[in-house]
Amino acid sequence: MAKKVILDLDTGIDDTLALVYAIASPELELIGVTGTYGNVLVDTGVRNALAVLEMFGRPDVPVFAGPTHASTKDSFEVTEVSAFIHGQNGVGEIEIPDAARRVEEKSAVDFLVESVREHGDELLIIPTGPSTTVAAAIEADPGFAENAHIIMMGGALVIPGNVSPVAEANVSQDPEATDLLFRHAKDVTMIGLDVTLQTLLTYAETATWRELGTVGGDFLADSTDYYIKTYETNSPHLGGCGLHDPLAVGVAVDPSLVGLLHTNLKVLTEGELRGRVMADETRLNDPEKTAHVALTVDVERFLGEFMERLTRAARQTATSELGSRSSAGV
Ligand code: BDR
Ligand code: CA
């Protein structure tokens, strides 16, 4: 039986890749997408999620909007770095048509709370943006933290952050929310930079999507090339772009892709170390370990799965202008 999943996305480029990975995985039943801020404003992220779902033939998956900013702040503005990495529109300035439908009326927090109540152990929640929405669900319902199973992309345990020497982007947007999540959730798997900076994609792979001659193939290739280019500027030592968010989905499909450290986590929220994820020394010897931190990853197997699934999904989308010209021999 397929595992039910909800993706909580700040739909930028790697969130898009995560969404298509989920759609393309028969082991998963995507019951909804919740939209958060981060790479983009909530409205932009929700718009992108709806548009990508439509492009890949899943207009049936409901999309819900979450809080527009961290609860410790009054508002949110996209940082220059985020706009550089994901483009102003979140998908590398590639224009894709709006979906015919709109976001659901129900809030993302209500949807998460109701889904955990209804599906319990059959459901995985996969947040790939700031923890604000999940933290709000924990605060809204006393049973949520006890019963939710979460596989999140965020944080870095043993390597530096990517927005500062200590902080990873998702955690840095709302450190208090991730701290609350780590202290209360009974089952959270952390897919952080420790592993996601080992799973890299290059122009060689995106070229295979472009060769498909489909709308989905062109879109994935063009937006991911934009993302790879920003890595050439910001992290030239890596030699590709980090597949952060897709790895969280990969682990939902196949937990054996990563090796885990079982511990209890916290986030530092004060001073220069604000946003740093650490093991919680006060719970170090608790027999119950609520966090499972990925520290190793089978890179080759993951990249193989990732490419196979996304290529299959992209092949099934409509023929693109490029594709029809080349099949007509133009
Ligand atoms: C994370 O931050 C965002 O920019 C990406 O989408 C990913 O979720 C990586 O630090
Ligand atoms: Ca993300």
UniProtKB/TrEMBL annotation:
<feature type="domain" description="Inosine/uridine-preferring nucleoside hydrolase">
    <location>
        <begin position="5"/>
        <end position="303"/>
    </location>
</feature>
<dbReference type="Pfam" id="PF01156">
    <property type="entry name" value="IU_nuc_hydro"/>
</dbReference>
<keyword id="KW-0326">Glycosidase</keyword>
<dbReference type="InterPro" id="IPR001910">
    <property type="entry name" value="Inosine/uridine_hydrolase_dom"/>
</dbReference>
<dbReference type="InterPro" id="IPR023186">
    <property type="entry name" value="IUNH"/>
</dbReference>
<dbReference type="InterPro" id="IPR036452">
    <property type="entry name" value="Ribo_hydro-like"/>
</dbReference>
<dbReference type="GO" id="GO:0008477">
    <property type="term" value="F:purine nucleosidase activity"/>
</dbReference>
<protein>
    <submittedName>
        <fullName>Purine nucleosidase</fullName>
        <ecNumber>3.2.2.1</ecNumber>
    </submittedName>
</protein>
<keyword id="KW-0378">Hydrolase</keyword>
